[in-house]
Structure formats: C-alpha cells, structure tokens
Design brief:
This protein is 38% helix and 19% strand. With 437 residues, the protein is α/β, with parallel strands linked by helices.
Length: 437
C-alpha cells in the first residue's frame, strides 16, 4: 500500500501548491492609477496622508510582500510584521518581529506594543491595512491587565491550549484578556480607514476567530467567558495575577457591532475553506479517486472525528463498488494534552485511525497547511492498513503513545511523519482519506 500513501502525499502537496499566497495577492489586488482595488473595495491613495501596514500570522511575510508589490511607487509606508520566522527579504519601512507559536514569546509581546504605538497616531487621513492569517493569537499578544507578566501570559496560553476546550472557547477567553484581540486593534486605530485582508484557518462565518479577531466586532461575551472558565476549572490552573484579575470583576467587555471603531472598516477573505476544498478535491480527482468533501467534524474530539470520517468513507465506498474513493475533510479537531510527548492534533487523529484501518486498503493523512502540528517538527502524519502491524513488530503500542500525547514520536519511528517545514501559509488542517476496493 506504499503507493497509496504516496498518492495521499501528492494530493497534499498539490493542494499546497494551488493555494500559493503571492499568486492570490497578485490576482486579487489591482492598481489602477492611484487607486488600489480588491473586489468591491476602492482605495484612492491621494486621500491619505500615510499608509500603515500591520501583518500578523504564519502567512504574514507572503502577504506583506504581495501587498508591497501592489502598492503605488512613492507611497510612504510604515508597518509592523510579526511572523514565526524572519523574512527572506525585508520590505523597506517595515519593522519585523519573530513571534512565538503556539505560545507567545518576548517578540510577540514587543510586536503588540509596537503595533499599538503605531496605531496611536492614526487619524482620518490614515489608511491602515491589516494582513491577518492563522497563528496570530500567539504571534502578537499583550495583556489588558498591566499586572500580568510575559510569563503569566505564556502560562495562560499553555493552559488554554491543553485544557480540552474548543478553539471557539479558547478564542473567546483570549479576546477578553488581551489588549490587541477581539476588535481592539480597530479600536486603537481610531478614525483611520481600515482594510483587513485575511487568509483564514477558521470556519466560514467565524472570521472573528481568526487571530482572535483583532479588527472585527467580537460576538463573544464576558458572561460566556465566565462559563468557559468554570467549565474547565481554569482559574485554579492559572497564575496568581490572572486569578486576582478574574476575581476583581474589572475585565472590560470587547467592542461589539455598532461601535464607531468599525464605521470605516472593511474585511476581505482572500483564502479560506472553499479554496482549500476546491484545490484538494481537484488534486484527488486528478489521481483517479471519486471524491467527496466534508467539514462536519470541525472542533470534534479527535477520536469521535476519526470514527465519523472513517464511517463516512466506508459509506462512500459501499455506494461506489469497484471504484477508488476519497474523503477530504478540513477543520481543527480537539485533542486534549494528557502527557508530555511530542505531537499535535493531526498526528493524534491518524493515530486514532490505526485500529479501524488495519489490514484494509485505506490510507489516512492529516496535516496542517502551515507545515506545523502542535509542538512537533512535522505537519502531521500518514498511515495505512499495514501501520498497526508494523508498529507492533517494532514494539510500539499506539495506545501508550496516544496517552502520552506522543503521536509524532510514534510516526517518526515508522517513517510516516510528514516533515515538510513551514509553508508560509495557514488555511485549515486537511485530512485525506483514500480507499480502494
């Protein structure tokens, strides 16, 4: 079944190639004289005294370079970029920070301070272009409460990510504790004209969760946050300064729809779930597989998602006897951290599938389109019907590795970890399930 695994890898790589950010930016941004056009938005640079750029996320470098190439020559531009790596080539006028992910580092903290300082001077003659992509929640952060230290914020992020909460719940809490999330960058930019260009790793209709929604009205509430804190018994896991702030009752509400901060703000989604599904579906069918797409398991616990998608794959198989079939799924499953191993939700998903696919002509691949899975150096993993037997022959117990949150180590030993390095993109996680008759 090695060739089936190779086909899954090819589908994944072809999908990544089809969602190339520089090509998307070139296609979407059109310069007509002094006017920049993007879909229904028209921005005449003659109306602005200054242009500021704020780019945050795993795709920040590619997005910044694409925007810089589209801007009119001679336009004075200043900006801040926070990404997980340094740029290959710096854009003049841009200050760069190398933020941390999935936990903020000192550069994440400094980037947030620099962005707020830059936005402080905005007025009606300022245009601010925000470039947002996944990962921004950690790559830029600063607490609302000045009593909290960077170490407190780091402990806060680690506790949230490992508590088993859904990504929606995590984002709701993050927004209310941060000075730069939940619409607060739009608030900081005051009367400026604001355009957000986004590459989304969140579900359709939940764009305010992207990078924890720094430029959009926040639909979550303090009451909801209180329920989440209680549900996962988070206060007792948090540093003393955060517990004290929560107990004080002084946490302010985030900006909501109707706030004047959003009067001159526009949001354009350049890449999202639709584009990811289209690219993966096309790549799968080019390999000769009858292909269906599904996003119903988004945010499900990893084992429940694995069983549901494998059941669906078998249904497609039974409905198309004699044909090779594929199921493409996207979104982020939840995988509670129960040990100190190396891994992430994608390799944990594949690990959860081993028993079900053992001895069958089935391959399962799950990977992050950013090239990173949790705290591992891999994007995810791939497995087939021989993986369980190969593991047992090597003395590897899948259940033990799953319990220790060590899924990367398991697949690394089998040679089936997907180590492709950072892609400079960050749409949703992608799962590719293939079956032959």
């Amino acid at each position: 079944m090695d060739d089936l695994k190779q086909i899954a890898r090819r589908i994944f790589q072809a999908t990544l190639a089809s969602i190339d950010i520089p090509a998307v930016m070139e296609r979407e941004l059109e310069l007509a004289g002094s006017e920049l056009r993007c879909r229904n938005v028209r921005l005449d640079f003659r109306k602005f005294r200054e242009v500021k750029i704020v780019a945050v996320g795993k795709a920040a470098h590619n997005m910044t370079n694409g925007l810089a190439a589209a801007l009119p020559s001679g336009i004075p531009v200043r900006g801040i970029v926070s990404a997980p790596s340094k740029p290959r080539e710096a854009v003049p006028g841009i200050t760069y920070f190398t933020g941390g992910h999935p936990v903020p580092n000192q550069q994440s903290w400094e980037a947030a301070k620099a962005i707020l300082a830059q936005l402080e001077s905005c007025d009606e003659s300022t245009l601010v272009i925000f470039l947002l992509s996944g990962g921004g929640s950690a790559l830029m952060d600063l607490p609302l409460d000045p009593a909290q230290t960077l170490r407190d914020v780091q402990a806060f992020h680690r506790t949230l990510v490992g508590c088993g909460a859904s990504i929606d719940e995590i984002n709701a809490v993050r927004k209310h504790f941060s000075a730069v999330k939940g619409g607060r960058l739009a608030l900081a930019a005051g009367a400026a004209t604001k355009l957000t260009l986004a590459i989304s790793d969140v579900p359709v209709g939940k764009e305010s969760a992207l990078a924890s929604g720094p430029t959009l009205p926040d639909p979550t509430t303090l009451a909801g946050v209180s329920g989440i804190l209680e549900k996962y018994q988070l206060p007792r896991e948090l540093p003393a300064s955060l517990r004290k702030w929560i107990a004080s009752g002084r946490i302010p509400e985030t900006p909501k729809p109707g706030d004047p901060a959003f009067d001159k703000a526009q949001f354009i989604l350049l890449l999202g779930m639709h584009e990811l599904f289209h690219a993966a579906h096309q790549a799968s069918e080019a390999e000769g597989f009858l292909t269906c797409c599904d996003n119903s398991t988004d945010d499900w616990p990893v084992e429940r998602a694995a069983n549901a998608l494998l059941d669906q794959l078998q249904d497609i198989r039974r409905g198309n006897p004699g044909a090779p079939v594929a199921l493409i799924a996207d979104g982020e499953v939840s995988s509670k951290v129960t040990g100190e191993g190396i891994g992430g939700r994608n390799s944990a998903f594949v690990l959860s599938c081993l028993e079900r696919i053992a001895g069958d002509q089935i391959v399962v691949l799950s990977a992050g389109t950013d090239g990173v899975d949790g705290n591992s150096p891999a994007a995810g993993a791939v497995a087939d019907g021989t993986s369980l037997q190969r593991a047992r022959s090597a003395g590897l117990d899948p259940a033990d590795f799953f319990k220790r949150s060590d899924s990367y180590s398991f697949f690394s030993k089998l040679g089936d970890a997907l180590e492709i390095g950072p892609t400079g993109n960050n749409l949703r996680d992608l799962r590719i399930l293939l079956a032959r008759p």
